[in-house]
Amino acid sequence: MYIKEPEKIENKSMDIIDESLKDVFFNEDEIAIVKRMIHTTGDVEYRHIIDFRNDFIERAKHAIKSSIKNKEKTYIYTDTNMIASGINKLALLKANMELMTLVSDEDIRGLAKKRETTRSIVAIEEAVRRGARIFVIGNAPTALFRLIELKNEAKCDPLFVIGVPVGFVGAAESKEELRKTDIPQITTIGTKGGSNVAASIVNALLYECDLRVSI
After folding, report:
1. Which of 9, 50, 114, 160 has the most other CB atoms within 10 Å of its CB?
2. How far apart are CA 54 and CA 158, in angstroms?
C-alpha cells in the first residue's frame, strides 16, 4: 500500500522534513521557505547551506504585497524558462506580477554572439533596462555577477534577489559575491541550487502572502 492522496503525501513529506530540522535554527518565516526548498530537492542537507540576508523575507513580502496594490505590474526576471515553468501562475496573477525571461530571445542570442559574451549577461542587462527589479537566478553565475556589477554601478536597485545558481564554474563564487552586498537575498552556499530550487522559493513567498492557488 502507498499514499495516493496529494495532500496526505505533502503533509507526510513535511513531517519528515520537520524531523530533519531539529539540529538547525531558522525563524518561523524562514522555515516555510527552507521546507519548500528541501521538499523540492528531496535533500535534507539543504538545511545547512541556505543563507538569508538583509531582511530578505520581510522585503520580499513587502514587494509582493505592494505589487498587489499597484496598478502597474511588477516584473520578475528569471534566468531560465524552467524557473518560469515552475512558478504558480495563478498565484503570480493574483500578486499582479509578471515573469520576464529573455535568455532564449533571438535578439538576445544575436547580441550575445556579436559581443562574444553570454546570453545570460545580455538578458539581465535588458531586463534591467525594461524595469525588472526582482531577480531569480538558478542557473547562470554570469547573470548574477553582472547583476552585482550593475548594482555597484548604480544602474539598478533590486527589491530582492533569489541567487541560487547551480554548478562547478562560478556558481559558488557568484553567490559569495552577492553575500557581500546589501541586497535583500537568499542564496545557497556552495555548488548546489538550480531552477527548481529558485522556483520553490518564489512559490513559498507567494504562499506566505496567502496567494496559494491550485493549478
Report:
1. 160
2. 12
- What phi and psi values does residue 190 have, to the nearest 5 degrees? 100, -155
Q: Which helix (H) or strand (E) holds 77?
A: strand 74-78
Query: Model's pTM, two decimal places?
Result: 0.93
- Of 113, 89, 90, the residue nearest 101 (C-alpha): 89
Burial of 106 (0-12, 13-18, 19+ CB in 10 A): exposed
Q: Which residue has the cell 545570460?
A: 120
**3-state SS class at 181:** coil
Does 39 qualify as catalytic in the annotation?
Answer: yes
Catalytic residue, from 14, 21, 31, 39: name it.
Answer: 39
| C-alpha–C-alpha distance, residues 174 and 56, integer Å | 18
User: Residue 49 and residue 165: Cα distance in Å, rounded?
Assistant: 13
CA gap 20, 46 in Å, rounded? 10
The single residue listed with the C-alpha cell 542564496 is 187
- DSSP for residue 180: T
The pLDDT tens digits for 85-128 are: 999 999 999 999 999 999 999 999 999 999 999 999 999 999 99
Cβ 63 vs Cβ 159: under 8 Å = yes
CA distance 56 to 189: 16
Yes or no: say if 117 and 149 are a contact pair by the CB < 8 Å rule. no
Amino acid at 207: Y
